[in-house]
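Task: sequence design from structure.
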């Protein structure tokens, strides 16, 4: 904070942090007060730097497409020591250019459209940007993704533990988004939440139950219980190996080898499932977002 102030950054301090939406709304109000004729506002996450030329590109695009209320571009990793897990994490958020349902947290908005929907909601704990994009779309506006580079993300040098924590937060966001807009027609994060539940919770639970049943049945029949348990474990491993292979074959993740991408994406479903459980049964969102 001290370094930002010394560099001349206009700081808005929010005493009661009600989530990213509250902080971003406060920053927007200050910006609008100082620039009454504000036409666009660019939101940026910490650890990210806007790419040179992005704002010029975005302004020209928005001038050509008045129906577009929110625009995002590609985010790329910096070259400063990115790990394999950093690259997998960045690829997980990638999407092709064109019209999209919702932008990520780094995006440019039309100021008038932003104000018409009341800015970000402050009573939700995750993915406030997806929520505001859906509310904009309900009013007839469009949300777009450009193929131009928008921002450079500094590598976080993720460890396996930090990567798992990030996957859990992603699962939490899936559940929060599905609770808000998971019903038709938006079905926000409905598929992602179901995928985390199936691969991270249902299949392992089914395998555990099958192993217990096989052990009990083997014991009742006088057979070796270990054989049945090994058979179930072998089937479990085979199913996930196939899942890794399918994900790797379908991978569209530039800069990440296909097989590591398939492995870590599949492994991430377990942590995503823990994030879904945290939202529904023990997370802070259970008292507000729903």
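Answer:
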């Amino acid at each position: 904070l001290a370094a930002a102030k010394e560099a001349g950054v206009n700081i808005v301090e929010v005493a009661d942090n009600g989530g990213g939406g509250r902080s971003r709304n406060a920053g927007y109000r200050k910006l609008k007060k100082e620039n009454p004729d504000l036409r666009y506002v660019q939101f940026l996450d910490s650890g990210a730097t806007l790419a040179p030329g992005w704002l010029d590109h975005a302004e020209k695009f928005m001038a050509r497409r008045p129906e577009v209320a929110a625009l995002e571009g590609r985010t790329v990793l910096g070259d400063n020591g990115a790990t394999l897990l950093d690259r997998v994490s960045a690829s997980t958020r990638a999407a092709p250019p064109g019209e999209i349902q919702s932008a990520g947290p780094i995006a440019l908005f039309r100021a008038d459209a932003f104000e018409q929907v009341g800015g970000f909601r402050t009573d939700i704990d995750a993915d406030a940007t997806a929520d505001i994009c859906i509310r904009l779309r309900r009013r007839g506006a469009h949300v777009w993704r450009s193929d131009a580079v928008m921002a450079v993300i500094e590598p976080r040098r993720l460890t396996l533990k930090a990567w798992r924590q990030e996957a859990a937060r992603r699962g939490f966001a899936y559940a929060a988004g599905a609770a808000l807009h998971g019903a038709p027609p938006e079905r926000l994060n409905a598929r992602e939440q179901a995928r985390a539940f199936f691969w991270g919770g249902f299949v392992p639970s089914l395998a555990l139950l099958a192993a217990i049943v096989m052990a009990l049945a083997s014991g009742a029949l006088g057979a070796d219980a270990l054989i049945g348990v090994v058979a179930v474990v072998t089937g479990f491993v085979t199913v996930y190996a196939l899942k890794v292979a399918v994900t790797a074959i379908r991978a569209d993740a530039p800069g990440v080898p296909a097989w590591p991408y398939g492995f870590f994406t599949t492994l991430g479903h377990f942590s995503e499932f823990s994030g879904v459980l945290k939202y529904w049964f023990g997370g802070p969102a259970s008292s507000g977002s729903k």
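The beta strands are 40-43, 48-50, 68-77, 98-99, 107-110, 142-153.
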